[in-house]
Amino acid sequence: MMKQIFFIIVLLSFFWGCNNQPKQDTINGSDAISEIKNEAELEQSVNEWNYKEVGSNYIDTLIVDICSTQDLEFIDLYPIMDSIASDKYESLVLHDLLKDNGFEITNWGRGNWMEGPRIVSFTMSNGKCECQIDKLYYSTENEDEYKVTERIKCSEIE
Q1: Do strands 72-74 and 52-54 pair parallel, antiparallel, or not at all (unpaired)?
Q2: Residue 74 contacts by C-beta under 8 Å, 6 or more apart in sequence?
Q3: Beta strand spans in the chain (E)
Q4: CB–CB of 114/98 below 8 Å?
Q5: With a threshold of 0.90, does the pTM exceed it?
Q6: What residue ranges do the domains of the chain occupy?
Q7: Which helix (H) or strand (E) holds 61?
């Protein structure tokens, strides 16, 4: 009887511990910008390129301190898409945001990464800082569907 009670206690402790682990896949838009910068305080999901994954609700906070924005990938700006837009119809949310805030395109490109996503890339500058913006089309399990994200990395111009 003692063995059964001990086994039940151990089993319940295990299940209780598994279900009460905090999980944070995205950064809430109400988080302060200083929390993004402090790696020790941030529980984050990091993709293979070491970009912090954030939700679209963080976009409004982004422009506050744009020049020090480092390695953010917005994971929920777009629904799953069934095609890749042509250059004529391509649009990027972050590109439009920066353009509305005085940034101009200094360079752009488009291509495929071997064994990786299709990518559309812009470099934009406002004279004080330079930002690289990428739109990535990740393949999914379904051949004709793409998960689309945008990422940004900025630095001050010296």
Answers
A1: parallel
A2: 54, 55, 56, 58, 59, 93, 94, 149, 150, 151, 152
A3: 52-54, 72-74, 104-112, 118-125, 129-139, 146-156
A4: no
A5: no
A6: 2-156
A7: helix 59-62
Q: 23 burial class (0-12, 13-18, 19+ CB within 10 angstroms)? A: exposed
Per-residue pLDDT of the chain (158 residues; tens, 9 = 90+): 666 655 556 544 544 444 444 434 444 443 434 444 333 233 333 344 567 777 777 777 777 788 877 788 888 888 888 888 887 778 898 999 999 999 999 999 988 877 778 899 999 999 999 999 999 998 888 888 999 999 999 999 88
Q: How far is CA 53 from CA 8, 36, 47, 126, in A?
A: 39, 11, 7, 25
Tokens of 65: 């301190």
Fill in the amino acid letter for 3: K
Q: Which residues contact 46 (CB under 8 A, 6 or more apart)?
A: 52, 53
| Residues 6 or more apart in contact with residue 79 via CB below 8 angstroms | none
